[in-house]
From TrEMBL:
<dbReference type="InterPro" id="IPR001460">
    <property type="entry name" value="PCN-bd_Tpept"/>
</dbReference>
<dbReference type="InterPro" id="IPR023346">
    <property type="entry name" value="Lysozyme-like_dom_sf"/>
</dbReference>
<dbReference type="Pfam" id="PF00912">
    <property type="entry name" value="Transgly"/>
</dbReference>
<keyword id="KW-0808">Transferase</keyword>
<feature type="domain" description="Penicillin-binding protein transpeptidase">
    <location>
        <begin position="346"/>
        <end position="570"/>
    </location>
</feature>
<feature type="domain" description="Glycosyl transferase family 51">
    <location>
        <begin position="95"/>
        <end position="268"/>
    </location>
</feature>
<dbReference type="InterPro" id="IPR050396">
    <property type="entry name" value="Glycosyltr_51/Transpeptidase"/>
</dbReference>
<dbReference type="InterPro" id="IPR012338">
    <property type="entry name" value="Beta-lactam/transpept-like"/>
</dbReference>
<keyword id="KW-0121">Carboxypeptidase</keyword>
<comment type="similarity">
    <text>In the N-terminal section; belongs to the glycosyltransferase 51 family.</text>
</comment>
<keyword id="KW-0378">Hydrolase</keyword>
<comment type="pathway">
    <text>Cell wall biogenesis; peptidoglycan biosynthesis.</text>
</comment>
<protein>
    <recommendedName>
        <fullName>peptidoglycan glycosyltransferase</fullName>
        <ecNumber>2.4.99.28</ecNumber>
    </recommendedName>
</protein>
<dbReference type="InterPro" id="IPR001264">
    <property type="entry name" value="Glyco_trans_51"/>
</dbReference>
<feature type="region of interest" description="Disordered">
    <location>
        <begin position="1"/>
        <end position="30"/>
    </location>
</feature>
<dbReference type="Pfam" id="PF06832">
    <property type="entry name" value="BiPBP_C"/>
</dbReference>
<feature type="transmembrane region" description="Helical">
    <location>
        <begin position="47"/>
        <end position="69"/>
    </location>
</feature>
Length: 735
């Protein structure tokens, strides 16, 4: 190498060091242009200089762009977090959605909730290199610039999906170079902060679809009435095309423009080999929707209640099952229409094991003003008619007053000024308690309530968590057993679910993942034996004409004046309660529960799609006939025997064990025999009959004490009945 060449090399290296990495290759470029050892031509030197200047300008531009992007500060994602409040069912299906404060529909959706073909069409049409670029596609920008230079107009844009997300997050009206640079800077920031699927999720939630629709899910529901997971090819193509010009291509206003835009998306997909010619032809043949569909409004009352309870939450998941809810809403509407004008209906379905509300129909038609559809009838206080009779019988069974085969009198009776009558104004004479409850006879029910006492029944109902509303005038009388009080359908459903659960009344659970607030042991409507007796009786009640008998336990109730028709039924798994009537409380002549509510109840059970499951009998159930019952249980006795008059004036009371006591009998200690439970009473008229958990343990004791050997630890209900039929009962815990 000559001295001159070494000098040129050193000079070039020095200049390269000053200008940066991008110019270090210029000497070799010059040598290649002029040949080894030859002096570069003027053209070669000019080309190299131009290349160097270009590289230098590019480097400076990149540095300036980075400084500009850093000066913008972090991207505000508040717009992406704004969304409509949605209420979902237990499996995530949409029950109801609410607009945002400004009236826009924007429903949350993720990539996993969208048909994959839609995503393929979207990327192919909007940004084919989406998975490969870093937010800004240089090739697409260069192509767009060349097309503008050649045609004098925009032929295809260079905007990527990431840049579109940036524009949606920071909307600006102007279409300038500064706005485009800002989008590019924000796109690079988005690519650094999020994955490609997360960027797609942002686009799917923010893209405009015309009017007040934003996001793919809102558009899919509004235009096609379906979730974006279930889109056809033609539907997917239309929704890919709309965000480019949402107002010009709205299918409900410009269906022909929408069709042309859809077909362009299909043409590009066909050209890229994403679909076959047959698929493209079938998609083009699909009709374009010409109107918007209403958003789902299932379980409207339950949805509104959930939003009121937690207004800050944007996603509420209920225990309701969407398909069952839709079916029962249709049933309520059909039943109310058959019953007459102005009548509404309500249905509540409860899972007995958990207390979860599987369906909540608050009205026959939420949007029907003539039926007061906005009123949630499940929370209205109404008269239950005979629907509370089973709990009178349960209390009588529990306290040893009666057994299902106890003989009762059904004949005219008077209690002071009160003279109950049966619904049909006829009398059966002598009937068993089983038959009296199955036929819903009023006179025997009042006779049992007179022995139990109305305050005791009310205390039991309220202790089980029912919100009982009494008339303002006077103390509660015997009429409460025939509907002379107010109760809500929600509470009635809970009480009947308690019968199915062996007496433990569940709290209603409405949100997925929640549990009841109170342990079942603290909210009981009956002991297990008494609850089973009632369930067994109600299972044999005469079924309506549209149903087979002996499948579910059920009871109806018609309030005074034909204002309310109720029916509640259950099997081991599920409880269903229904109500029909006018929301304003007006009388409806001919509104008899057996004719309108019972058929609706059985149809609701049929729509559950489950075979009814029988409730197994608990231990200590007494299977007997009227003739084989212990003598005090054969009849509801009211006549006091004359043999032992000295103690007749003293009321019968259990002296031991005391009510609520914990009695240590050694049941939990290994290696020791359990001691019997001592039973002692005062007052009353012997002989006495003792019961534990509804089963007799000592019959006709002349003495006022006895004993019982338990078979394990736990709660026990101890009752005693004297010769006059007087009774007392206590609950104890045995340890």
């Amino acid at each position: 190498m000559t001295a001159a060449e070494r000098a040129r090399r050193d000079q070039s290296g020095h200049a390269g060091g000053e200008r940066g990495q991008g110019l270090r290759g210029l000497p070799s470029l010059l040598r290649r242009a002029s040949g080894n050892g030859a002096r570069p031509s003027v053209a070669a030197r000019r080309a190299a200089a131009a290349a160097g200047l270009a590289l230098l300008a590019a480097g400076a531009g990149i540095a300036a762009f980075r400084l500009y992007a850093d000066g913008l500060g972090p991207l505000d994602l508040a717009a992406a977090r704004e969304r409509s409040t949605v209420v979902l069912d237990r499996d995530g299906r949409l029950l109801r959605a609410f607009t945002m404060a400004d009236g826009r529909w924007r429903l949350p959706v993720t990539v996993r909730e969208v048909d994959p073909r839609f995503l393929d069409l979207l990327v192919a049409y909007e940004d084919a290199r989406f998975r490969r670029h870093g937010g800004v596609d240089g090739l697409a920008l260069a192509r767009a610039a060349a097309q503008i230079a050649a045609n004098g107009r925009v032929v295809s844009g260079g905007s990527t999906l990431t840049m579109q997300v940036a524009r949606l997050l920071e909307p600006r009206e102007e279409r300038s170079l500064a706005a485009k640079l800002r989008q590019m800077a924000r796109a690079r920031e988005l690519e650094r902060r999020f994955s490609k699927d997360e960027i797609l999720t942002l686009y799917l939630g923010l893209a405009p679809y015309g009017g007040n629709l934003e996001g793919l899910r809102a558009a899919s529901l509004a235009y096609f009435g379906k979730e974006p997971k279930r889109l056809s090819l033609g539907e997917a193509a239309l929704l890919v095309a709309l965000p480019q010009a949402p107002e010009l291509r709205r299918p409900d206003r410009s269906p022909e423009a929408a069709r042309r835009a859809r077909d362009r998306v299909l043409d590009r997909a066909l050209a890229r080999g994403l679909i076959t010619p047959a698929e493209a032809a079938a998609a083009r043949a699909e009709a374009v929707p010409r109107e918007r569909r209403p958003f789902p409004a299932l379980a409207a009352h339950a949805a509104e209640a959930a939003v009121r309870q937690a207004p800050a939450e944007r996603v509420h998941r209920l225990t309701v099952e969407a398909r069952l809810q839709a079916s029962l809403e249709a049933l309520a509407r059909e039943s109310a229409e058959r019953a007459g004008p102005g009548i509404s209906a309500a249905v509540l379905v409860v899972d007995n094991a958990t207390g979860a509300v599987r369906a909540h129909v608050g009205a026959a038609d939420y949007f029907a003003a003539d039926r007061a559809g906005s009123v949630d009838a499940t929370e209205a206080v109404r008269s239950p008619g005979s629907a509370l009779k089973p709990f009178i019988y349960a209390l009588a069974f529990e306290n040893g007053l009666a057994h299902p085969e106890t003989v009762l009198d059904d004949r005219p009776s008077r209690y002071g000024l009160y003279a109950p009558e049966n619904f049909d104004l006829a009398y059966q004479g002598t009937v068993t308690a089983r038959r009296a409850l199955q036929l819903s006879l009023n006179v025997p029910a009042v006779a049992l309530l007179a022995e139990v006492g109305p305050p005791r029944l009310l205390a039991r109902l309220r202790g089980a968590g029912a919100d009982i509303v009494l008339p303002r005038e006077g103390a509660p009388g015997l009429a409460v057993g025939l509907g002379g009080l107010g109760i809500r359908l929600t509470d009635l459903a809970r009480l009947y679910a308690g019968l199915a659960r062996g007496g433990g009344v569940p709290d209603l659970v409405r949100r997925q993942g929640e549990t009841g607030a109170r342990p079942a042991a603290r909210a009981r409507i009956a002991d297990p034996v008494a609850a089973w007796y009632v369930a067994d009786i109600l299972k044999g009640a005469p079924a309506p004409v549209n149903a087979l008998p002996g499948r579910i336990a059920f009871k109806t109730g018609t309030s005074y004046g034909y204002r309310d028709a109720w029916a509640a039924g259950f099997d081991r798994r599920t409880t269903v309660a229904v109500w029909l009537g006018r929301p304003d409380g007006a009388a409806v002549p001919g509104l008899v529960a057996r004719s309108v509510a019972a058929p609706m109840l059985f149809e609701a059970f049929a729509r559950l799609g489950e075979e009814p499951e029988a409730i197994p009998a608990p231990p200590n159930v007494l299977f007997a006939t009227s003739a084989t019952l212990p003598p005090p249980l054969r009849h509801l006795r009211k006549d006091a025997p004359k043999t032992i008059a000295a103690t007749a004036s003293a009321p019968l009371r259990i002296a031991f064990p005391p009510d609520g006591a914990r009695v240590d009998l050694g049941l939990g200690r290994a290696g020791e025999g359990a001691a019997p439970l001592a039973l002692k009473a005062t007052g009353g008229v012997p002989p006495l009959t003792w019961f534990v958990n509804g089963a007799p343990v000592a019959e006709r004791e002349i003495r006022r004490q006895s004993s019982w050997l338990p078979d394990g630890a736990g709660f026990a209900r101890v009752s005693v009945v004297d010769a006059r039929g007087a009774t007392d009962s206590v609950a104890v815990r045995l340890e």
